[in-house]
């Protein structure tokens, strides 16, 4: 973000408006910005309208606007936050530049952007679309890498209804918070810490990749599945593993998240019936967030459970689910 002069703004101004920086201005349509723009008149210490949506800026006005943005006197209204969120979600790296957005506002942007990205990927799971998913998830991990506490607002952005994309985003955001909450204070300084974070969170977003190979009529069925239908569902973990290979994604954290999220400590899971000591830590985390996020969303065949009730159900099932991860989840809900 470029340096701008410090303004003597009235108290409360930043609660109603936030500044636009040059990078974000460049992301707008040059002659028709997507939202209303305001100018701060320093000599009288007040905000005045500068541009109204639907108008068209002249070439001279676009240059003037750029100069005013560089001077730090151009603002947008927080009432236009939904418009701004939708706009900036298409260029997610801009959240790293805008220092005037609140953590809650940024969490909204991440949820919208990542959901749209996962919808596109599940609709067309090819390398080109995956690369865009990876790019946006790395913006997410960079954002929290700067301050681990930022993950808290992200974990509150749970979609209430189940779709493949919604579930992926719920698991990714909640898993990100739990993963960071489980690290020691020296984690950031440890070797390959950032790489581990990136690959683990990517794995959580992609853990149900193989479900794209299960027919929609089976995924959305409201009645009990027939044995052959259940077999197809149970095959999604290995289908996802094979899809990773075809996409040339060979990182162990991602492979384990995809292949192990239905394994259980007592060996009752699938596909390999792994037990305690054989399931990776990434697989255990993926299993907890996958089950929890499925339970708290409304599905065609089941209503949503209350978050605390869902977490307690996992804790009671400690023969199958790791108590340390579930207790961490309960700690989050208690706060």
Task: Please characterize this protein's 3D structure.
By secondary structure, the chain is mostly helical. It folds into two domains: 13-80, no CATH class; 102-334, Orthogonal Bundle (Hypothetical protein af1432). The chain has 16 helices and four strands. The protein has a four-stranded antiparallel beta sheet with strand order 1-4-2-3. Helix 6 (127-145) crosses helix 9 (193-206), helix 8 crosses helix 14 (281-295) and helix 9 runs parallel beside helix 13. Mean pLDDT is 93; it is low at 1-5. Residues 141-335 form the HD-GYP domain. GO terms for molecular function: hydrolase activity.
Number of domains: 2
Q: What string, H for helix and E for strand, traces the elements in order? A: HEHEEHEHHHHHHHHHHHHH
Q: What would you call the structural class?
A: mainly alpha
The CATH class of the largest domain is identified as: Mainly Alpha
CATH topology of the largest domain: Hypothetical protein af1432
Residue share in helix = 40-55%
Average of per-residue pLDDT values: 93
What amount of the residues lies in strands?
5-15%
Global geometry:
elongated
Pfam families: HD_5 (PF13487)
GO molecular function, one term: hydrolase activity
InterPro entries: HD/PDEase_dom, HD_GYP_dom
Organism: Solidesulfovibrio carbinoliphilus subsp. oakridgensis
């Amino acid at each position: 973000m470029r340096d701008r002069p410090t303004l003597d703004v009235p108290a409360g101004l930043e609660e109603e408006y936030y500044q636009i920086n040059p990078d974000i201005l460049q992301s707008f349509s040059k002659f028709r910005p997507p939202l209303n723009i305001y100018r701060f008149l320093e000599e009288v210490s007040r905000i005045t309208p500068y541009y109204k949506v639907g108008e068209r800026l002249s070439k001279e006005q676009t240059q003037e606007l750029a100069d005013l943005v560089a001077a730090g006197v151009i603002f947008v209204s927080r009432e236009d936050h939904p418009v701004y969120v939708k706009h900036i979600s298409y260029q997610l790296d801009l959240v790293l530049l805008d220092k005037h957005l609140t953590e809650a506002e940024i969490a909204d942007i991440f949820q919208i952007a990542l959901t749209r990205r996962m919808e596109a990927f599940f609709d067309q799971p090819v390398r080109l679309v995956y690369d865009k998913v990876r790019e946006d998830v790395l913006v997410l991990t960079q954002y929290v890498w700067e301050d681990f506490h930022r993950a808290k607002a992200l974990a509150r952005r749970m979609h209430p209804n189940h779709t493949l994309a919604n579930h992926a985003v719920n698991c990714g955001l909640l898993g990100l918070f739990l993963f960071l909450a489980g690290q020691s204070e020296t984690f950031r300084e440890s070797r390959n810490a950032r790489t581990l974070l990136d690959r683990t969170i990517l794995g959580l977003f992609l853990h149900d990749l193989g479900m794209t190979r299960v027919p929609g009529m089976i995924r959305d069925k409201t009645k009990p599945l027939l044995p052959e239908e259940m077999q197809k569902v149970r095959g999604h973990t290995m289908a996802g593993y094979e899809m990773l290979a075809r996409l040339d994604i060979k990182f162990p954290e991602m492979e384990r998240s995809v292949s192990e999220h239905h394994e259980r400590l007592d060996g009752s899971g699938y596909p390999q019936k792994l037990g305690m000591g054989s399931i990776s830590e990434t697989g255990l985390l993926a299993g907890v967030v996958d089950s929890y996020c499925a339970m708290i969303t409304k599905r065609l065949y089941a209503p949503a459970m209350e978050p605390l009730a869902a977490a307690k159900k996992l804790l009671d099932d400690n023969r199958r689910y790791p108590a340390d991860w579930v207790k961490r989840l309960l700690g989050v809900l208690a706060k």
